[in-house]
Design a protein that fits this description.
It is built from eleven helices and 20 strands. By secondary structure, the protein is an alpha/beta fold. It has a domain of 137 residues: OB fold (Dihydrolipoamide Acetyltransferase, E2P).
Amino acid sequence: MTESSILLPGYECQLEDDSVLHSKEKVQSAAEDLLTIGIPKDNIHTLPCLSHKETIDYRCSCTFQIVSEDPNNDECELQYAMRSAKTAILLRGDHFPIATPRIQHVMKLVVRELNARVSENDSAFKYTLLRTDLSSVSFASSWQHGLDCIATFNYCTPIHVNNETKQQLLAEANDFCSDCNITTLILRSKKMKEVGGRIPPFIDDLLHLKRQDGVITIALGMGDETSIPVFYHKPEDAFQHPNGNTMLKALEWMMNTLQNIERTEMENGKDFKLLEMYCGCGAHTMSISKSAIFDSIVAVELDQRLVDACQVNCVKNGCSPTQNNDNVDGGKGATPVYSFQGDAGEWAAKSLLRRKRGLDSSTAASSVPSRSSKSYWYGQDYHVLLVDPPRMGLSHEVRELAINGSFEHMIYVSCGRQALKGDLDALKVAFDVMDCTITDLFPRTNSVETLVHLKRRR
C-alpha cells in the first residue's frame, strides 16, 4: 500500500494533491474576505505552508472510529475509519499521515495489538477485553516529537461489570501501554472510566524562547544557555493547540508584536499590565510571562480544569505571584501571572461597572482588596487586551470592555473567520487594525487562524 492510497475523509486536499498550493489559496481567500470590512490591504499578511512537510505530521489530537469488516463476527480484524457526512469511511491504512509522528507510530502498534492472537496455535485474541465493543479511539500527543502520547478507548457498552473483570481489564491496559509505547491508556464508557499506564494522565511539552538582534524566536525542545525554557503541563482532557507548527508561528508573531508595543508605548515608571481572556492552560501566557514584557498579567478562563493547569504551569515557570514577591512590580524575572476562573463576559461586565462607578486604581489604598482577589483586578487599567475566544467569537460584554476600557492595544487570536469579521467590524469604532496575519491552522482543510493587532484610534 502506498502512502497516497490512504484516504483523508473530510479533508479538502488529499495526499496526492498539491497541499502547498491549497494552503496559499486558502489563506489568500481569507485575506480577501477581510478586505470587505475595510482593513487596508497593506496591513493584511499571510503565512501559508511553504512545503509539503508542513501539511503532514502536524496534528497532535485526532479521533478515529473502530470498525470491523463484519460487525456480527467477533473474529474479524478491527480497522480505523473516519466520519464524513455521518458515514464511517475506512482510512485504508494503519496510520494517519496528518497526525504527529508520535501518534502515527502508536496507531500502527495499537491496531496490530488489537488484532494480535495469543499464539499461532491459539486463535483467541491477545487483548480480548480491550477490543470487545470498542467503538472509537482518540490520540493526543506532545507537540514535540518523541514525548508523551495518550490513547483513549471509547466503548458503546459498560467496560466492566464486577471487580474481577475490572482487575483483568486494568492488567490488559497496563500491558497494552507497554506493547504500544503509550504513556497512558484511558478506557471510557457510560459513567465509567479506568486508566492504565502513567496516572494521572497528562502531556508535557517544552519550548525555548530566544532574543537575538531584537527579535524573539520560539522553537520546540531544549535550547542553549542563551535561551529561556518554557514548560507546559497539560491535563489529558484540557484543550491544547492542535498544530504545533502554527502555534509556534502564532507565539513568535505575538511575542514580537507585544515587544514592539512595549518599546513604542510604555512610559517610564508605568505599571505595564496585560489582561488575557480565554487563557486556557496558559499556552500564550507562559511565553509572554517568561519574556518579561509586562509588569503583571491577569489571565481569565472559564474551565476550572484549565485554570488549575494554568496555575500549575505558573509554578513550573516561576511566574506564580507567590514566587515573585520581590519583583511583583516589574522585576527582571518572569512576569507574575494572576490566574482566575471566570466567564469572560461576566468579567467584562463587572469591569465596566467598576469603571463607571469610578472604583479604579485611584481608590483609596485602605479600600483596595488584595491582588489575589478578582475585585482588585476588575478596577485596574490595562495597556493590552489579549483574547483567544472560541470559534463563535467575542461576547457583547467583551466587545464593550475592549471599546470602553483602558486598553491602548488589543491582540485577537481567532479560529472563526465569520465571527472575526463581525468582531472587527464592531471594534473599528475605537480601534484601527495595524496588522492582520493569517496562518494555516489545519493544512488540507479550510480552517485558518488569524492573528490581529488593533491599536486605539486617537
